C-alpha cells in the first residue's frame, strides 16, 4: 500500500532507524520515491512480484518473463528486494508451486544472474542453509558477488525477452544474463574492458539445463576487450 498512512509510517521508520544507526529493508512496501536520499540507511524497497510468489503462484504467472521485464521498468525507480537464491529449480514442464519446498521457475544459473541484473544493495540467499551446504561450488560463487557496484551498463537486451547486465566493482567486472523461457544463444563482447588480459570465471547453464533446471557448469578462461564468448541460455 502507498496511501498517506503507509508513507508516513515509512518516514517514521526511516528516521528512527537512522537515529539508532540501523539499516532498513522495506519488504512488502511501495516503490522507491527518493526517501533513501534523505535516509541512506534505507537499502531496499520491494514493490515487485518477488521470489516468494513461487510458493503459491500459478504457472500462468510467468516468472522468467517477469524477470526480464521489470528490470527495464520497475528498476528505473531504484533498488528492488526480489529475494533470489532458490536452490530447487524447475523447467516450464516440471515446475509446480509447493509451499513447503518452493521451486523457482527457470534454471539455477537464472537465479544466480539475479544478483547481478537486479539492483539490490541488501540481498539475500532465499533458500535453506542445508541446500547451500550441499552445493559448495555454486554457493561460493554467488556468495562472492558484490551487492553494490561502481558502474553499470546493459550491453544487450530486449524487454520481455532477455537482458545482459555488466557491473564494475573496483577493478573487477561482473556480467549476468537472463532469458525468458525461450532458449537463445548470445554472443557476449567485452569491449567495455580496459586493455589487458582477465580471468573469466563463468557460471552457465549445463548441457541438460532445458530438462534439468539445476544443471550448471563452472568454467575458466582468459579474455580481453576483443574477446567474444557464446553463451546459451
TrEMBL record:
GO terms for molecular function: hydrolase activity. Pfam families: GH97_C, Glyco_hydro_97. The keyword Hydrolase applies. Transmembrane segments: none annotated. Residues 1-48 form the Glycosyl-hydrolase 97 catalytic domain. Residues 149-233 form the Glycosyl-hydrolase 97 C-terminal oligomerisation domain. Keywords: Hydrolase. InterPro entries: Aldolase_TIM (IPR013785), GH97_C (IPR029483), GH97_catalytic (IPR019563), Glycosyl_hydrolase_97 (IPR052720). PANTHER family: GLUCAN 1,4-ALPHA-GLUCOSIDASE SUSB-RELATED, RETAINING ALPHA-GALACTOSIDASE. This is Glycoside hydrolase 97.
Amino acid at each position: 500500500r502507498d496511501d498517506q498512512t503507509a508513507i508516513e509510517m515509512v518516514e517514521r521508520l526511516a528516521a528512527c532507524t537512522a537515529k539508532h544507526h540501523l539499516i532498513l529493508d522495506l519488504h512488502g512496501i511501495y516503490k522507491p520515491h527518493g526517501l533513501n536520499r534523505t535516509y541512506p540507511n534505507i537499502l531496499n524497497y520491494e514493490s515487485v512480484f518477488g521470489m516468494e510468489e513461487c510458493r503459491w503462484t500459478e504457472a500462468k504467472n510467468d516468472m522468467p518473463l517477469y524477470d526480464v521485464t521489470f528490470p527495464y521498468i520497475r528498476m528505473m525507480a531504484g533498488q528492488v528486494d526480489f529475494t533470489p537464491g532458490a536452490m530447487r529449480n524447475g523447467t516450464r514442464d516440471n515446475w509446480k508451486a509447493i509451499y513447503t519446498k518452493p521451486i523457482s521457475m527457470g534454471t539455477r544459473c537464472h537465479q544466480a544472474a539475479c544478483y547481478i541484473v537486479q539492483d539490490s544493495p541488501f540481498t539475500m540467499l532465499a533458500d535453506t542453509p542445508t541446500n547451500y551446504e550441499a552445493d559448495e561450488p555454486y554457493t561460493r560463487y554467488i556468495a562472492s558477488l558484490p551487492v553494490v557496484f561502481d558502474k553499470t551498463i546493459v550491453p544487450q537486451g530486449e524487454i520481455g525477452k532477455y537482458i545482459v547486465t555488466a557491473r564494475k566493482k573496483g577493478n573487477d567486472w561482473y556480467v549476468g544474463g537472463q532469458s525468458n523461457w525461450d532458449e537463445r544463444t548470445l554472443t557476449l563482447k567485452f569491449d567495455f574492458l580496459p586493455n589487458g588480459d582477465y580471468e573469466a570465471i563463468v557460471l552457465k547453464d549445463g548441457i541438460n539445463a532445458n530438462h534439468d533446471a539445476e544443471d550448471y557448469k563452472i568454467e575458466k578462461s582468459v579474455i580481453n576487450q576483443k574477446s567474444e564468448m557464446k553463451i546459451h541460455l
